[in-house]
Amino acid sequence: MTDAQDPKLLWFSFLKTFTRALVQINLYKPDHPQVRQALDEGQALLGQIADSLGGGDLSVTIDNDKLLINGVPLVAADKLPNSLRNLYTKFRLQTITFKPGASGEDLLALCQVQAHKGEAKAFLAERGVEKIKLDEAVYAKVDSARTPGAASVVTPGQTGAAGQAASPQEKVAEKISGQSFESALATVVGRVTSDPEEQRRVIALLEAKFRDAVEAGVTRALEEVRREKKKVENDMARTESVMTSMADGVVVVDKDGKILMMNPQAEAISGKPLAELSGKKIVDLSQIENQVVSLAKEIKSENRADISKEIIKTGSAEIAETVKKATALIQNEDGKIVGSVSIPTDAVKLKQVEQLQQDFIANMTHELRSPLTSIKAALEIMGREAGAPTESARGILNTAIRNTERLNSIITDILDFSKLQSGKMVFHQEGAAAGDIVREAAEAMRAWTTSKGITLNVNVEPGVQHVYADKRRTVQVLINLVSNAIKFTPQGGTIEISADAGKEALSGFSFFSVKDTGCGIKKEDQGKIFEKFVQVASGEKVGGTGLGLSITKAMVVMQGGRITLESEPGKGSTFRVGMPVYKGQGDQQVFEQVPEVKEAPKPWWKKLLGM
């Protein structure tokens, strides 16, 4: 059996993908590209596993500190990622069964159940998930009457296992079954002793013991109720403290939502005095310009039935959405509110405007690319089929082609920058040969270097290890660096693209280098060369967006790599890109380390608000 057919590798791949989805659903929205990619991969792997099993189920069990797949031990439970173990622990699960045909939406519901406060089975049932079954761990108590050596229970009128008549003890059980507690106790004690005084003492002693046992049981039950009551009271007090700390104004309403009292801060917000608003419904405040009211549909106290969780919202929908996005609640591990974080609503509004701007730029640049590609193709066809144009006509045609290439490069930079800003740039990392990446980048840029009279050399160190990277994006990184080198290297200069292995502390990386003999970069300018919209080389500025190196660095870092610059004015520049060495990422040896795409760091409040 080949590795591709080994079912254990398929199992490991699915568990790794499912664990990645569990982690990412806590970081992103369900429609985020990273989440969708993990779910699609999980669905595809489940299909392959079903085919390998002949259409059978896939059961994932944690039992006796081991992970079993269809009963086959795979790894120790303590080697599993925390997110996967927590799913089993939180809902007391023993087995998760995936039936053939389980979809990505089914996997999404299973990932979302980890944030659910109720029963996991009910959560999946509400979402119509039928292809995933959950089995809870069951601990059975052994009935002492059924243990070896225990007496068999025989009902009245029956004989024992050996065909004998019911014993005297069984007749006593038949007799007391219909008696009150006191009568039954007297009957049992009467079988022990015939002395009336002794019987009274034994009955009194048994009644005292029974009473003590009942009181102890009731006390334990009440203690649990008291603890739960105190927990609810604490949760309510904490939530009330958090909510009141978010606002100075207080409005008191009756059971119908009519205003009874307002403090001065609330009067200032409403813009009207209490005398004018008293007796009016609180929802009428939303008729005042720029105000939003959120009110529980049921505001009466209720202790006999569940209340509705619906909220009545009145006021400008746009303002309400802005206020909502300006505040996030902080919950503890039990899902209880313990705090909040807010940003100025003006900042949220600015963020919304920035998002519209980014969407506009992305759409416009995408629409510009198609006609530009057609124009460039037409110009190239004219250059090949126009016979022998005059020197002047040839120069005009070449200028037009170069400008279309330059414009296409600018549009590509803007599109990539827009994807990076919105978090929509997806990387598909896998093992890739460093030499292939270098040669592909060189071939893509050879025509340009030749036209400028620049020599392009390729040097791949023997034995350099494969890299764990998105090959297409890594080729783009080198193309960006070569393109930058061409701009600053004069005619007759040299550019070298090379690949070599990392040494000593950097042995976990394979390095790509782009070295030129151009004008170089001043020491004071090297710190800002990777910033957006910056183009500096020995104090000179050239055409372009100034986004190329910024995009290049982002694509390297998001793949777990690093990029450095060595340069001196007049002696050229050397950019070195280190990418992680491929060590079988995705195989079972590194199952504990679920690979995740790294994104550019965000402020903590943006992460919390999902911005």
Give an account of the 3D structure:
By secondary structure, the protein is α+β, with helices and mostly antiparallel strands. Strands 3-2-1-4-5 form a 5-stranded antiparallel beta sheet. The chain has a 5-stranded mixed beta sheet with strand order 13-15-16-18-17, covered by helices on one side. Strands 6-7 form a two-stranded antiparallel sheet. 46% of the residues lie in helices and 16% in strands. Strand 6 and strand 7 form a beta hairpin. The two termini are 48 Å apart. It is elongated, with a radius of gyration of 37 Å. The protein has 4 domains: 134 residues, no CATH class; 97 residues, no CATH class; 74 residues, Helix Hairpins; 151 residues, Histidine kinase-like ATPase, C-terminal domain (Heat Shock Protein 90, 2-Layer Sandwich), CATH 3.30.565.10. Helix 7 crosses helix 8 and helix 13 packs across helix 17. The chain is built from 18 helices and 18 strands.
Major sheet details:
5 strands, antiparallel
Overall mean confidence score, pLDDT: 77
Q: What best-fitting shape do the alpha-carbon axes yield?
A: elongated
CATH superfamily of the largest domain: Histidine kinase-like ATPase, C-terminal domain
- Kindly state the percentage of residues in helix: 40-55%
Low-confidence stretches: 139-166, 587-598
Please give the CATH architecture of the largest domain: 2-Layer Sandwich
CATH C-level class of the largest domain: Alpha Beta
**Widest β-sheet, arrangement of strands:** 3-2-1-4-5
Count of separate structural domains: 4
What's the CATH topology label of the largest domain? Heat Shock Protein 90
Cα end-to-end separation: 48 Å
Structural class assignment: alpha+beta
SS summary, helix count: 18
Number of strands: 18
C-alpha-based Rg, rounded = 37 Å
Proportion of residues in extended strands = 15-25%
